[in-house]
Amino acid sequence: MTRLVICVLLCVASSALGRHEKYEGHQLYRVSGLDEQIRALEASLDILSAKPAARSSSGNLEAVVRLSPEEKQQWLQYFDERNMLYTKIADNLADIFRAEEAQINATKRSGKSFVWNTYYRHDEINDYLDHLAAKNPDLVTVINAGLSYEGRQIKYVRISTTRFENTMKPVIVLDAMTHAREWVTTSVALYIIDQLVNQGQNSVLVNEIDWLIIPVVNPDGYEYSFDEDRLWRKTRSKAHEGADECPGVDVNRNFDHHFGTNEHSANPCSNTYEGLFVFSEPETRIVQSAVLSNIDRTALYISLHSFSSMFLYSWGNGTLPSNGLILHLVGVQMATVIDEIALDKADRYIVGNAANALYPTTGTSRDWARAAGVPLTYTLLLPGYEYQFEVPPKYIEQIVTETWPGIAVGAQYVRNNW
Ligand SMILES: *[C@@H]1O[C@H](CO)[C@@H](O)[C@H](O)[C@H]1NC(C)=O
Ligand SMILES: *[C@@H]1O[C@H](CO)[C@@H](O)[C@H](O)[C@H]1NC(C)=O
Fold first, then answer.
1. Is a pLDDT exceeding 60 seen at residue 39?
2. Ligand 2 atom 9 nearest Cα
3. What is the pTM of this model?
4. Which of 168, 262, 273, 342 is the most buried (most CB within 10 A)?
């Protein structure tokens, strides 16, 4: 009873406050430390990303963490006591989110073509894909792959000059927006679709490869990140105990690969909660069936994430797969062309085994797809630029245009070696 009253009060208060006010005064800090020190933060802080630390820092990993005004003193003292170096990188997240929203509101929108200085809603994206298929019936097929937990249609596109019927061709599968707050991943997926369908100079890659692209794996989380909480990451499912307080599952921990062996992913309130059982999420199952649909000829799978500028390959436990050297080589080829056109202020790409370059993970789509038989599988962490997940819309164009040539190099490798 008391809880209900409190919830009613809080819920009314928070909806009256509007969607960004919960981040009023929140700041972002980059903090470096030893592996264990950074990982220990995960239980109590929102870790926005982690990556290998610069040489001058105080350990081997650095993370971007968000601190509310109330917790700031306590945590900065905690870092000081452990000799963990930190710098402030953003002052008030609510202001940053409002500026992003104003920019999105200010762009003229059309369901028929997209521009690369704004973000689009899920229904706009679905309409665009249907429009593209209607306009290019010999090249583009939209598959209604199934419904999300909250009932949104998850679509993917198949791009093929032979309707996926020529089984001699290799297949490339890309997905994006597994994690809701990583908005720029969908921009990259849509740009790649545009390059393949509308830009004639890529005809070799279109003629000789079949492409399967899922621009929004997690529409419930995506829409929630627009309407309620810009930093939402997981799905919105509520099948597990404790879901009232902590809904959602991390799709990229929900795949059938060493599932259930990572304590950090067992807690429903963790941002990396793996779910009750493998493939518990409809979103996970849709990626699974998309990858399995042409498994014998799928040569490359890339899951687009944000941010950190990294190509990560299997396995999530630090052991290398049998083709580890090839994975590294192709990853370096892709990263090199991206680095050549990245902005000077961008971090150079890191290519490496996921656990060695970053930290151990379980249940990822990358490892599951590799184990299912796809030879080349990567988690691609796109660059952050400034506020990291909240890639300011002015950088979208830079990121989509620099990433495509990298993907194209991966596709060339597939074409030459299939
Ligand atoms: C953006 O548009 C929405 C819907 O019209 C409106 O509620 C919101 O206040 C606008 N946000 C900004 C920052 O202008
Ligand atoms: C890591 O996972 C791979 C793939 O499942 C497995 O072959 C390997 O033995 C594991 N390594 C360790 C150290 O457990």
1. yes
2. 319
3. 0.93
4. 273
